[in-house]
Amino acid sequence: MSERLVSDVAIIGAGIVGASAALALRRMGLTVVVLERDFCGSHSSGVNYGGVRRQGRPLTQQPLAQRAHGIWGRLPELIGIDGEYVRSGHLKIARSEADLAALELYREHSKGFGLDLDIISGNALHARWPWLGARAVGGSLCPEDGHANPRLVSPAFAHAARRLGADIREKTRIDDIAHDGQCFVLHSDNGLEVRAPFLLNCAGAWAGTIAAQFGEAVPMVSAHPAMAVTEPLPLFMNLSLGVEGGGIYGRQVARGNCVIGGGRGYALDDARARPGRSAISSVLQQAVELLPALRNAHIIRTWSGTEGYLPDREPVIGFSSTTAGLIHAFGFAGAGFQIGPAVGEVLAELVRDGKSPTPIEAFSITRFTDPSTNPLQHAKELAISTAD
Amino acid sequence: MKPAFNPVIVGAGPAGIRAAQTLVAHGVRPVVIDEAVTWGGQIYRQPPPNFQRPKTTLYGFEAKRADAVHTAMADILDRIDYRPGTLVWNAEAGQLDVLHREQTATVPYSHLIVATGATDRVLPFPGWTTPGVFTLGGAQVALKYQGCAIGSRVVFLGTGPLLYLVAYQYAKAGAEVAAVLDTAGFSAKLAATPTMLRQPALFAKGLYYLAWLRAHGVAVHHGVHPIRALGTQRVTGVAWSDGRGRHELACDAIGFGYALRSETQLADILGCRFAFDPLQRAYLPERDAAGRSSVANLYLAGDGAGIMGADAAEWAGERAALALLSDTGMAVNDVRAAMLERRLARIVKFRSGLEQAFPFPADWAAHADDDLLICRCEEITAGELRSAVKNAGASELNRLKALTRVGMGRCQGRVCGIAATEILAHASGQTLQTVGRLRSQAPIKPIPFAVTDVVQEERA
Q1: Beta A258-264 vs B298-300: how paired, if at all?
Q2: Do B449 and A276 make contact, defined as CB atoms within 8 angstroms?
Q3: pTM, rounded to two decimals
């Protein structure tokens, strides 16, 4: 044993959820140790598409998404950088009348959450965004949604927490977790022992192992979004785009590169993934249909990541039902980037107050562990759909 | 059913051609995929059909070897499936994704010989993105393939055998070579002489170029520190310093480079294990003496797996092909295989002498100013990299890339990766080995959106 640490809270995983929880806890004055197997924000939190979008989320997530929206608006004061965050607007495209009807329905149902959705179709759509291809017949605009650079934002949350005194250990894998009746006792592969009365399981796609160890096995699977980026192009795409029913998503960064994603890649091993030929081919083809300006552009890089999906595509957020002091937050189904900072604040409130003003009941882990509320019976196939 | 036997060779330079020739000699018909439109690789790049410069002018001392390699390929064209002008942009186990004239296709393989060659090892100096500045390899391609010089009065700068070869080729072609500025000192060359005399023929060629240049009035300066390329819209000169002070020289083009670096992306994407090579200051895919990689049925040959030069590439290509044949149960000439391995081992020793004679400027990072542009695709300076190390704690190369975009542009680090690695190691006080290497991602080179996917080819 080379080093022993004692803190109020131990967090496993320095993705955007774990890092923003650490930041919020430090702002409350609690001591925090964060244990990251790799580098801060180097997995899904740092390699995702970068959508900062409320539109299209299940209504259960809207209170969290609204709270996060406020946090994103204060990003520079929280983490010291703007993270290339822009409220460009998010347009969800309809490729058919049925898609348009689904967008109308979502607008009705999401009224009251402040999304200010605006449905635009036909000539008005192409007059307003002439760069959209003919495949788009309409769309739903959420004017205050946008996008940001996850490579910068997620590590910056960790650095902000560290500046406020969080003890963040990178390249530190937790091999053993025990509970001695009072505290969690964690041992890492590099000789670290951490004792804390609270343990936050923010281990992303790898969080299921920890939950299972405490008798809360969940049917989480990993999936791998396929993403690609173009060389810098003249600015034309002044929106973040999604497609109703799945397909592709895209945005253009200030430097001019277009980030386009869609479909699924494959795992190389437990931690790494690649987009794969078929997903890339499909993304290229669909992108040209929706964005004809890309026809003569080049893809310069593709990448993927590892994201955890639960059958109902909702995350697990909240207290363990088996072990006092254990709090889970994982399974964000490729859509954790926008709500991550709000989840972090909620986790900090759960530690300090035992509850949060933001409703999270829908995300209880008991929906998988309590046989009377098992959603597996209604779980849909894990469809290829719009991730963040 | 017996699994299909369809060997594929990527690269038609000296390694790829000798590998193909060896397979053909054993009755095997390989697919040979090459990015260039004609065979020969970079070193023996052929001019377009309507260009008529003789090989002696194009290749100098290498004319005979060039001709032998070209002829070897010409002789087997009807017994191989040759795919020129074809980029391998991605690979998944057993399949290569290729791009040929805006069309993508998938090429299955049971065995693969990766002979992807090398590009210039670039270390930026102030003004290196000024129009008129080329890499040595680029300057050579202009001459060999397009029959034109990069300028009418050219300075060659950097170090390595290519520095003198290209200067010689330019002078022979009638261009005015204003000077050769070698960053390595002359004493280093003397110290390396005993090691290099292990390969007297190669050594003599090197000496010959130097002597020829001097005899023809070309100024050759050793121990040079480049200050900058002069000119804004266009190169008008070069400034450098040496033990005797600061100098300026007028020129309208600069060719520069610091020897070569291996093109390892395909080996990386295919999962080959890499190890750090201190001599080449780079991570290289591991291979045994015969060229077997850490991945079954995947062989490495030529400069793509570590810089050994064109002659060694021929031997390594043949040796890898023999290993492939032998691994599939075919009888091969073991005496020949052993002889090739001995030759390759001798070259390894000679290369260590070369590194001594043309040492990498190990203090380059320490002297790079903060405003020096490192990544020209993404316009990242040395100062920005240092700031990410200092303020964001970047200690590993892929983290530095994520935080700064270095290596994220069109070249994907093929040009800027070495300089970024040197800066990161120096700024973070770590070794090159510790800071790691850039992960390769598809596409190996940019691919257009508007491609048509050719129906998957049936497995042979």
Answers
A1: unpaired
A2: no
A3: 0.93
